[in-house]
Amino acid sequence: MSQYYIIDFDSTFTQVEALDELARISLKDRLDKEKIFKQIENLTNAAMEGRLSFSESLEARVRLLQADQIHLKQLVKHLKKKVSASFSRNKDFFRENADKVLIVSGGFKEFITPVVTEYHIKKENIYANTFEFDEEGNIIGYDTENPLSQEGGKVALLRQLNLPGEIFGIGDGHSDFQLKESGMIKKFFAFTENIERKAVAEKADHITPSFDEFLYINKMPRAISYPKNRIKCLVVGNIDEEALAMMRKEGYNIRQRESIEEKYLEEAGVLFCDEAHQPTPMQLEQAGRLKVIGCFGKISNRKIADTAGENGIIIFDDPKHNPRNAEFIPKRVIDFMNEGKTHMSCNFPELQPPRVNNAHRLIHIHKNVPGILAQINEVFAKHNINIVGEFLVTNAQIGYVITDVNKGYDQQILTELKKIEHTIKFRLLY
């Protein structure tokens, strides 16, 4: 059966509400601009949460805009920089599913089309409102006959389209949930990467904090192997809020505690700590999910660093109160989690592999004994897997191998790589 993906635009495909942004552009010279901005924002939220009909909200917002075609060009340029991060990194999905993806929005084609067509979405698959202009190019209204300008417009449109297959809806607002309520779509996914509207999320089939999560639970190809919202980042001690903001922006599940408790450390993929709150070697031996530690200060003794290395856990640290570490530590952690880079680690051999496009990256951490690389390559050869790039570094304790391979391979190779003797940790990065 064919599958179709109905995706909202505002606060879903993009991080922002486009009409709100257009108001900030068109009204920037008005003395009462903040008052009008607040009115437009309130009208947007009232419609998205189902407290005001969409048609009433739209009419009132457009009336307040006082925008023209020059403002629209500025808006498009701005929106292209505001595509949601998880949509942006999964551009391949849109290219490979160009016939199945529909943008359905109560926004306007004048600013939606130039943004989403850069992601291989077909113009004929974009359903939205259209503005009306006067001879000078000022916005004076919109096509009120378009079903998307009216309450329940997305439901009416889908009835007209009568798509022959299963339909999945992805969005953040009440109008998106109405598709589920109508019984016309199989599942509704409340998209919360940019904003979570509780009234909508409570009714969803699934809450998806990123597009990666949507692709993951539906077992579809994606840019990263495991959604970051599923990776817990345990934070203990005095950690700068700027550092946590960087991790939140990446999508990690932040969990703050006053001390390192085993039950929370065992669930964590990332640990942020300060000099006064460091894990013991015994705790590290039990932390099976932990991949990386960012210490805001110096690791207190060599035993912690060595035990971490023996268990495949990389550590980045920095002198206490160093002005750079609020950015330095999370950047090192993010680069390791995203690319496998170990540059400036205090316990791992250093490696800065270049990013390879159209390939999968596999990480193999093992005890530094002879013959491991040969065994890894034997697995690839047995399955006729083409190696695009391969990098090996070692220290006295461990070997660290990153292999980039062509897409399209038997999943059995992942199991075989994990079973190689002396393997400490194995991870499919992307």
TrEMBL record:
GO terms for molecular function: L-phosphoserine phosphatase activity; magnesium ion binding. Gene3D superfamilies: 3.30.70.260, HAD superfamily/HAD-like (3.40.50.1000), NAD(P)-binding Rossmann-like Domain (3.40.50.720), Phosphoserine phosphatase, domain 2 (1.10.150.210). GO terms for biological process: L-serine biosynthetic process. Residues 361-430 form the ACT domain. Keywords: Amino-acid biosynthesis, Hydrolase, Magnesium, Metal-binding, Serine biosynthesis. Pfam families: ACT_AHAS_ss, HAD. InterPro entries: ACT-like_dom_sf, ACT_dom, AHAS_small-like_ACT, HAD-like_SerB, HAD-like_sf, HAD_sf. This is phosphoserine phosphatase. The lineage of its organism: Bacteria, Pseudomonadati, Bacteroidota, Sphingobacteriia, Sphingobacteriales.
